[in-house]
Amino acid sequence: MTPVPPPPAAPRGPVMSHQRLELLAPAKTADIGIAAITHGADAVYIGGPAFGARSAAGNAMADIARLASHAHRYHARVFLALNTLLRNDELETARTLAWQAFEAGVDALIVQDMGLLELDLPPLPLHASTQCDIRDTGRARFLQDAGFSRLVLARELSLAEVREIAAATTCELEYFIHGALCVAFSGQCYISHAHTGRSANRGECSQACRLPYDLADGDGRIVARGQHLLSLKDNNQGAHLAALAAAGIHSFKIEGRYKDMAYVKNITAHYRRLLDEVIEHPAADGSAWRRASSGRCTYTFTPQAEKTFNRAYTDYFAQGRQHGIEAFTSPAFTGEPIGKVIRIDESARRFFDLDATVALNNGDGLAWLDNEGKVTGLRVNRVEAAPGKGVRIHPASPVPASLCAGTTVSRNHDHAFMRLLDKPSAERRIRVAMHLVFDADACTLTLTDEDGITASARLAASEALSLEAARQPDRALADIRRHLGKLGDTPFAADIIECTGTPCFLPAAAINALRRDAVTRLDTARLAAHLRAPRATPAAPPTNFPQDSLNYLANVLNDKARAFYEHHGVKVIEAAFEANETAGDVSLMVTRHCLRYSFNLCPKEVPGIRPEPMRLIHGRQTLTLRFDCKRCEMHVVGQNEQAAPPAVVRLHPAR
Known about the structure:
By secondary structure, the protein is an alpha/beta fold.
């Protein structure tokens, strides 16, 4: 077999523009990232060995390189989360890590600490992390001018606010469409560090927002007791994808770098289908979009977002402030309501009968709320028809006392569904046209994929292969097409198979070898055609920051970050909260979630109500709530317990 090089052509890769809509999925590990690509993601974001804002989701560079190689075959991309605050002694390590990521094939860096922009970074696009607190046009335009190619917008933004930022910028905009919601504006929460020394801005959040609290008014009266008052439902923007695209969003981000394989498979496939519907149906104003990567997915399951972990869903502030965003009852996954308990085996509590609305399976997990509002549950050992009505559930252990007749039961583990996700559950194929040309002394197979990339392989006549004209041309062509179409273990699928010239007899082994050679060459050509975008050039001279003084909320933890802001006109710069120089009562959390609003005590809605402070109480710990009604924000106020106590000066009187 004589190799034929592909015809010369300019390297090509995905065209980066707002016409392309990107589905961005999380990856706790490289294998989960590969699954996300296979299930339809156009890009994935992943943490490296350090500084990834999720301390328990780090990965070796060799694994990230493996992920990048898989992604680039589909012209999908890999973004490295390098988005914690850095101490002075960590800057060089972070710089080295960024260059290692470049060598591993990473396509962009996600950054929070502005000190990194003062270092010698690799020529990769920079994405401003959501922890940069991007919620207004001034901040957005400044970050674009500072050299960021993409802005990850605050989760709290409404569609109207997104449109304003899109009108003021030209860089890519990214928006969270699914997953857990941080109750605070990202980067503006210090409760974890203040109480435990574990900084959320350094990837070690203790999730104080998921704890139960009592809420007291200014007179000490208890408004709510033992509720998860800072816990929100999970984000779900499935109904707003077209509106977000029209507003200027380029990248649609799924939260969840701590999520498992099943979750990422299910949610990625779910949004792949929804986003494809948007792409296939142009907007009324004529806006048309394209996918940001190649290949089409098929699944062995029907994606269903409600089947994997969630705290119920909200579209948060996409359409403005609304009631119902809270998950006050529990931060746990209760699942889908499936029916009520009809009767219980009171003697030995070995079974109970359920008026189920869905088919149940052995191994399912069931959950309910006990008398204290806590989620409890059991695993189904055996299901059978109940006498009369419903199904009889035999659990693996005795039925808990908290379950009684009339209790609403939910399913939070669908065993049959999860078994589908435990197996290979998707294929992603790039369409190719196959053209086989017969001539007097050779056969040439050319493959052209859906992106226009081509590769060829040639089979020459030899003593072992005569290439004689086939006695039965139609049968020979049918056999050739059948063997050429065997692309099962490759990322390709035959869209068209054409043959030109006088068919000759080809042994199956020869056809298969020719096909494998051409496929290998096309795979190599696709990897070579994947181009990484360059880093954006900062504005010159440097644009001034919107303010000339910064407090601890600016998160300046190292000298390089201080120098960055000085270069951009800032005169007064306080140290980050994590420097432990901030003392006294300060805002430990800034949030658009408002407990006055949640409990119908909003001064804007109830005449005579004043925005007086309230208190959150958890055990011996008390936090003060202050309300900025002009901005519709709530501040959770407390002290930094990690801050050094003021020095005590002891005076010794003269004798």
